[in-house]
Fold this protein.
Amino acid sequence: MAPFDLQLTLGHVWHNISYILMGIAFGFVLERAGFGDSRKLAAQFYFRDMRVLKVMFSAIITAMLLIFWSESLALLDYTKLFLNPTYLWSGIVGGLIFGVGFVIGGYCPGTSLVSLGTLKLDGAFFVLGLFAGMFLFGETIPLFRVFWETAGYYGPVSLFEVFNVPSSYVVCGAVIMALAMFVAAEKMEHLFSTRASGRKNP
Amino acid sequence: MKLKITGIIVALSLAIGLNLIAKPDLDMKLNQLSQTYQGILQTRQIYIDPAELLELMYNGTMSYQIFDVRDDSDFNLFHIIDAKKVTLDQLKDNRFIKTLPDRSVIVLVSNDETKAAQAWKILAIQGVSNIYILAGGINYWLALFDNPELNSNPDPKPKPEGDDRLRHSFQAALGQLHPAANPDYEQTTKRQWEKKIIPLGRTKSKSGGCG
């Protein structure tokens, strides 16, 4: 029953190689989805190209359906999956900083590496900024360590635990929400692309 | 367009279908994972020596909780100091699991080891970590700490496959007032034992990130 202990099954070397292979596959899929181009990524914030939302939500509901179907068929032990603990307030502040960086730079950390992988200059500069930010964070952490480690700590929680409903209800809700957002995203793309092209060609 | 409609139908069908099939309950999971957990138990990596529990009790830097899964009469006759009495049904209750502290070592205790091993499986299957079993149970604990003559070499050995009955007689039901409920710290140094409890690390996330 999954999750499998890859280190035990593959051995130390192949366990590490498997991470590299998964990273390459992930980067390849991101590049093919157009996530290596900052113009396409930034267009998300102007509602002209909603591919980020569509790809991310597709990935979320695909993984969600696979995980909970596997659990229901006794192929996966859900309790053994690692869940990121919730740090609500530090998460909100971090999310805002992340969002500002995304709008200004046109990339998130993962997509900037994809861009660098295809030798794009803006991607390379973003990665330099990323490392500078990491260095700054590491050097200044004593100033906000308490906030970072404790603000709004709830441990690893899931929506179905918060609302005290079966996990299948939340899966159903997430799928319906994603599908509704896909439809809305397409309409917005159509609306804002038409407006933009209208301004260019009066 | 056809592809999009097919995608919508597939996603919706899978989501609705998930609500129609039965989710495996705890007992089903116990049956399915029985062999996996039996394998872990057989390595005895989660069985701690009574001296290690005693050290933990005097440690002061590590939070711990002792859960005693024996019946009421045995618990009232004798239990380790600060141990909480719980039933296997209580351990199966998700509301009880929610009350367990995040950063704490849990030690399960029965008269021998059989019932504590059952309790370990129930907690492990619900994703509770840092759970250990007192090797030899209360019978071994009492053999070591209630009898100074026996508490030197040769050590009495734990009985993993015991019948989980209390094999000591008591003049009165003293519970945790019994002298062996809280032995002196020096008892930990009188015997050789293998350290099994893994120190608890930091809780900050170890993975994550965006696309």
Q: What stands out?
A: Chain A has one domain: 6-200. Chain A has a mean pLDDT of 88. Residues 80 and 90 of chain A are 26 Å apart (CA to CA).
